[in-house]
Amino acid sequence: MTITVTPDVFKLAQVFTISRGSRTEARVLTVRITRDGATGWGECVPYARYDETLDSVTAEIEGLPAGITRAELQDALSPGAARNAVDCALWDLEAKQAGKRVWELAGLPVPKPEITAYTLSLDTPEKMQEQAAKNAFRPLLKIKLGTPDDMVRLEAVRAGAPKSRIIIDANEGWSAEVYADLAPHLLRLGVGLVEQPLPAGDDDALTGMERPVPVCADEACHDRASLPALKGKYDIVNIKLDKTGGLTEAIALRKAAEAEGYGVMVGCMVGSSLAMAPATLIAQGVAYTDLDGPLLLAEDREHALHFDEAGVHPPNAALWG
Fold first, then answer.
1. Full-model pTM
2. For residue range 194-238, what is the model confidence (pLDDT) as tens digits?
3. Beta bridge partner(s), residue 163
4. Between 275 and which of 68, 108, 176, 271 could a Cys-Cys bridge form, CB atoms 3.0 to 4.6 Å apart?
5. Rounded to 5 degrees, what are φ and ψ at 168?
6. How far apart are the first and last CA of the chain?
7. What is the DSSP letter of 281?
8. Residue 144 among the catalytic residues
9. Helices then strands (H, E): number in the chain?
10. Catalytic entry in 96, 142, 144, 243
11. Annotated catalytic residue: which of 96, 142, 233, 240?
12. Beta strands at 21-35 and 38-44: parallel, antiparallel or unpaired
């Protein structure tokens, strides 16, 4: 068995801005695993927030022993981008060699389209209202916020897209005081969820705080080991394969989170259809799906995921799984 890692760059359709900065391209790593004439592949997005770089993640993958199995991989690498790409490539390889789809091998239901959020990046209120109006036909919009002056932005987006459902992602950008000030206005403006309002390492203020709309753990939730620390602070967990370290742990995390009473959101980093494909299997029937990465790109993989009024469709076998 051979494992190869290559960097790929996908230009974005427009500048994408969150509270931590802006980008004009998505830099990803593509992993290919070949065994007995078949090749499976997967994609990950190294994320600086988690101390990951293209080089560090590449080194992790290249350091794996030849012939590693999916079960062995779970202990060989920690949750994160490196394990994600290898895990998903191994799933794809297993499916190709078995002549079955991944959901069959994993015992998951046959996937169907799921409505996905479409993300509006952080900008001036005027430009965010323009973005909202341009995308007002979409049923679910996700707004990137995370500044002390977000109320006017939220009002602007609601004015631009009066009928769309709205969810908010603060990307750890608020203080407890800012969140408490905004919280009473969220229901009035039709907000359905607030994602990671406080920094993951400084979120104890959420304990016992009134939450008029559900609060979702993103940076605070990586894998099953994260769940005990979320008690009393969060209502929903955001499952991203680049955080869980692949589909294998994502399946287990969803089951464990639901057993503990959490709602589930399935999200993504900004990557190609190859990165989103495995996540569509986890997203079946969850409270919120946020797999719009390919919609933010100016270019994508061949056999890209299909998006229409029904949402994001599961991958065809030519792409993955």
1. 0.95
2. 999 999 989 999 998 888 899 999 999 999 999 999 999 999 999
3. none
4. 271
5. -120, 140
6. 19
7. H
8. yes
9. 10, 13
10. 144
11. 240
12. antiparallel
